[in-house]
Structures are given as structure tokens and as C-alpha cells.
């Protein structure tokens, strides 16, 4: 059945047509049967569900935040990077959509097979390089005549930037991004077959006053082993596993082994600054508590028990008499 939802006006118009005889029930059935047939383009094979694309978008939203922080620190200027879109298209279509001369960084992501393409618009790439070289961040598009030094600066900058993908993908795979190739002409770069489905994450980027796009092209062969981890069912299972009894028991044991400071307060007193400055050996400071009053035992800085002083062998000790109740801290223990 069709998943479209009719509006109230469309429903009223349909009932009116059936009532007046403009459309019969048989015509309506034939139209429904016709709608069931949908054209399918095998060149644009959809290998990822909407949920999987949505989860990939969520992962790369985190990646874009990491890139924003990284480039802001490296370039010392205003940087804003955010996910603009996420689509699955044939590799050939992606190559046709990017400039004929651009910055192409090819990364391997072991232990996953295949390679990921990190395409940076020349306007953005030159603005970044200008900032690194001490300029204002203006863009000069001379991509055809990149010097070896300029290529080295750019590749180092993007190599360190793409390392943040490891943190962004930590929930689905442990990868080690490695820059394997640097190219400026997409026609010379053939990562997969032209009809291979790729996921393209487009990042809208602002460097100072220069704007442009950064595209991350991920072939299906890279994501194939971890596709189950991109489903909603996996994410729900992961959240549920976080509270299993075994993990809670292990956490409780670790907490029980933690050491905390315990102190005993003999009493308190107050003196003036003048008296404090004139203190000398043998002087006595009067405390507010009486000698037969129980002492306050503190755990950390919080009073928890009352006790009385004594000895345990040759060492000073304190015996717990009662616990302090009624305070706001008591409920926390």
C-alpha cells in the first residue's frame, strides 16, 4: 500500500467524486494497483536504509564539532563546520559533482577494507593554508600549480584533522585513519567502480569570511562490515547493555576498594589575630566542646559519626558511638 497520507481536503474531494459518479470504486482500485508499481534505477542502488543514513549523519555531526575545535586552534580564526546533507549516490555521480580541480585526500581506515575520500573545496583549502602561513585567510584558487611545499602543508593539516574520525566512529568501529594519497584531479582517482554506491557527507564550512564545502565520500565496501551497527536496534541494545547487573556489580566492587580520608575533630575554638600572632610554646587554646562530649568523625569533609577517643595497642584510635542523622548529607550515603 502507498505510505502517503491524504489531507482532509483530498479525502473530501475523493468522497465527493465517488458520490457524484465522477469516479467509480473500480477506477479507484485500478489507480491503487497502478501506484504499487514503482520504477527502480539499478544504477542508483539504495543499499542503506533511512535509519542507517540518519545514524551516519549523527556520527558526522560529532565529527564536524571535533573539526571545528581542531581548525579553530590550528588557524586561530573563526571556524564553523556543520553537516549540510548526507546522501547515497553512485561514485560516478559524486565525481561529476565536485570541481574539476580540487583537494582530494584519500585515507585508509584499517581494519576496514576500502578507502575514504576527504574532498576539500579549493577556496577552503587555500584560506586554511593562508592562515597557517601567517596571512589573513584569503583564498587564491591556483590549484593547478600547487608547489611541493604547499602540498606538504595541506596534506599534514588534513591528515591530523582526519584523525578525529577515530573518535567520532568509536561507537561503531575502532579505526586508524592513514593518509595514503593526495590528488588534485578527480579524473585520476578511481577508488571504486563508477556504479558503486557511496555515502557522501557534505560539511558546510566557514573559515573567517571564506565559505565552501568539505565532502566525505565513504564507499559501501568500507561500511559493509559495520552496517548492522548503524541500525536503531543496535543502538537500543547498546544502551540496554550499559546497565546489566554484572557491570553494575563490578562498578560497586571498584567503588568499595576506593580509599577515603577519615578524620576526628577534637573540638573548635576561636582567638583574635593579635592573640594568634603572640602564641608561643606552652600556651593553651580553650575549645568550645567539653571533655566528656562525643567527638565528631568526618568522612572527607562531611560529619558522619560520633565517637570517643581511646587506644588500639600503641596507636591512638576512636570508637564509633552513633551515626549523625537528619542532615542533608545523610541521604547521600
TrEMBL record:
<dbReference type="Pfam" id="PF01052">
    <property type="entry name" value="FliMN_C"/>
</dbReference>
<comment type="similarity">
    <text>Belongs to the FliM family.</text>
</comment>
<dbReference type="InterPro" id="IPR036429">
    <property type="entry name" value="SpoA-like_sf"/>
</dbReference>
<dbReference type="GO" id="GO:0003774">
    <property type="term" value="F:cytoskeletal motor activity"/>
</dbReference>
<dbReference type="InterPro" id="IPR001543">
    <property type="entry name" value="FliN-like_C"/>
</dbReference>
<keyword id="KW-0966">Cell projection</keyword>
<feature type="domain" description="Flagellar motor switch protein FliN-like C-terminal">
    <location>
        <begin position="254"/>
        <end position="322"/>
    </location>
</feature>
<keyword id="KW-0472">Membrane</keyword>
<keyword id="KW-0975">Bacterial flagellum</keyword>
<keyword id="KW-0283">Flagellar rotation</keyword>
<comment type="function">
    <text>One of the proteins that forms a switch complex that is proposed to be located at the base of the basal body. This complex interacts with chemotaxis proteins (such as CheY) in addition to contacting components of the motor that determine the direction of flagellar rotation.</text>
</comment>
<dbReference type="InterPro" id="IPR028976">
    <property type="entry name" value="CheC-like_sf"/>
</dbReference>
<dbReference type="GO" id="GO:0071978">
    <property type="term" value="P:bacterial-type flagellum-dependent swarming motility"/>
</dbReference>
<keyword id="KW-0145">Chemotaxis</keyword>
<dbReference type="GO" id="GO:0005886">
    <property type="term" value="C:plasma membrane"/>
</dbReference>
<protein>
    <recommendedName>
        <fullName>Flagellar motor switch protein FliM</fullName>
    </recommendedName>
</protein>
<keyword id="KW-1003">Cell membrane</keyword>
<dbReference type="GO" id="GO:0009425">
    <property type="term" value="C:bacterial-type flagellum basal body"/>
</dbReference>
<dbReference type="GO" id="GO:0050918">
    <property type="term" value="P:positive chemotaxis"/>
</dbReference>
<keyword id="KW-0282">Flagellum</keyword>
<dbReference type="Pfam" id="PF02154">
    <property type="entry name" value="FliM"/>
</dbReference>
<dbReference type="InterPro" id="IPR001689">
    <property type="entry name" value="Flag_FliM"/>
</dbReference>
<keyword id="KW-0969">Cilium</keyword>
